């Protein structure tokens, strides 16, 4: 086999209806469907070369050698599919402002899925790529596509994958991110979701209402009803964080400045600016708004937290080879 290098770029995504809980830990099958927006500003570029000369897989992230156990486990899935037994060199670069704390396993595994499958001689369609990326990190299956994306939970490896949703014209959704803390999260999403599934008494209500939230947010997208869209996204995020606070032992990703930013968003809303917040497994606050309101929202957050903590991103493209 020729040691050809393939390089792929994949963008991060922000979930508006969250994936929070697995029904199969090994295959990464989620408890509920989720919906996200792929972002233009933040992405990962990854090069993969399968090389007969290598004794072990080699993984470099942002220029330094990293423990590649998770990457090797993922490459094993690719090797099995391609029926090869060759080690690989993986070179990955995160294009996320270094202090942003927004680096994501979603862009990482989407880029790795595309580059590694190509380098291994596979030619996967988007559905197969999405299924493969899912095995690295659930949210990565959505980063195979650009714009608005739904992940259908499915019932097994074959049926759990993402697909793109139509973005209506003149529905210019934008995200203003506030970096509250750029450190690594205290509780990984993997550990956090496992704990809520096993211990939160509210988990069944989450599964039920997430399905309702998804149906309603899709209707709001079709109707270009941004207020309803934002309200549902914000409420869904708060339900996810309420699950964490109701787990045993309970945990919490929010920090004082997360709450402060959330209150600023609520105040802006009272003043007539359409904006809604969402938070993932960390303290950073992402404000969902329309492009026309970015200036006032970014300006208000910059006044309180400093301009360098505020980042703006719009809808981004699908994963692609470069
Ligand atoms: O894909 P993971 O294991 O990084 O989990 C992602 C979980 C959330 O970001 C909190 C929600 C989501 O749907 O992206």
Automatic annotation (TrEMBL):
GO terms for biological process: isopentenyl diphosphate biosynthetic process, mevalonate pathway. Residues 10-162 form the Diphosphomevalonate decarboxylase-like N-terminal domain. Keywords: ATP-binding, Lipid biosynthesis, Lipid metabolism, Lyase, Nucleotide-binding. GO terms for molecular function: ATP binding; diphosphomevalonate decarboxylase activity. It holds the Pfam family MDD_C. It comes from the Bacteria. InterPro entries: GHMP_kinase_C_sf, Mev_decarb, Mev_diP_decarb, MVD-like_N, Mvd1_C, Ribosomal_Su5_D2-typ_SF, Ribsml_uS5_D2-typ_fold_subgr. Its EC number is 4.1.1.33. One of its GO terms (cellular component) is cytosol. Residues 176-308 form the Mvd1 C-terminal domain. The keyword tRNA processing does not apply. NCBIfam families: mevDPdecarb. Belongs to the diphosphomevalonate decarboxylase family. This is diphosphomevalonate decarboxylase. It comes from Liquorilactobacillus mali KCTC 3596 = DSM 20444.
């Amino acid at each position: 086999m020729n040691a050809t290098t393939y390089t792929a770029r994949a963008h991060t995504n922000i979930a508006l209806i969250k994936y929070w809980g697995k029904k199969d830990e090994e295959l990464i099958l989620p408890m509920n469907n989720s919906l996200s927006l792929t972002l233009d500003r933040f992405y990962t570029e990854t090069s993969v070369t399968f090389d007969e000369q290598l004794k072990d897989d080699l993984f470099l992230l942002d220029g330094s050698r990293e423990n590649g156990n998770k990457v090797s486990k993922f490459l094993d899935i690719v090797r099995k599919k391609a029926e090869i037994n060759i080690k690989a060199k993986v070179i990955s670069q995160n294009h996320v402002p270094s202090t942003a704390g927004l680096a994501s396993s979603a862009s990482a595994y989407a880029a790795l899925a595309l580059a590694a499958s190509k380098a291994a001689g596979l030619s996967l369609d988007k559905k197969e790529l999405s299924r493969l990326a899912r095995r690295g990190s659930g949210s990565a299956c959505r980063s195979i596509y650009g714009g608005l994306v739904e992940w259908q939970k499915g019932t097994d490896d074959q049926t759990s994958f993402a697909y793109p949703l139509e973005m209506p014209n003149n529905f210019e959704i934008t995200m203003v991110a506030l970096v509250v803390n750029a450190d690594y999260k205290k509780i990984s999403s993997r550990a956090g979701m496992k704990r809520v599934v096993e211990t939160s008494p509210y988990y069944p209500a989450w599964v039920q209402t997430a399905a309702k939230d998804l149906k309603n947010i899709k209707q709001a997208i079709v109707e270009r009803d941004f207020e309803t869209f934002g309200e549902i996204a914000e409420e869904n995020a708060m339900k996810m964080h309420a699950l964490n606070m109701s787990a045993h032992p309970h945990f919490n990703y929010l920090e004082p400045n997360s709450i402060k930013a959330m209150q600023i968003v609520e105040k802006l809303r009272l003043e007539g600016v359409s904006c809604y917040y969402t938070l993932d497994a960390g303290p950073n606050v992402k404000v969902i708004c329309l492009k026309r309101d970015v200036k006032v929202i970014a300006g208000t957050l910059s006044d309180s937290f400093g301009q360098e903590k505020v980042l703006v991103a719009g809808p981004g493209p699908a994963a692609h080879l470069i």
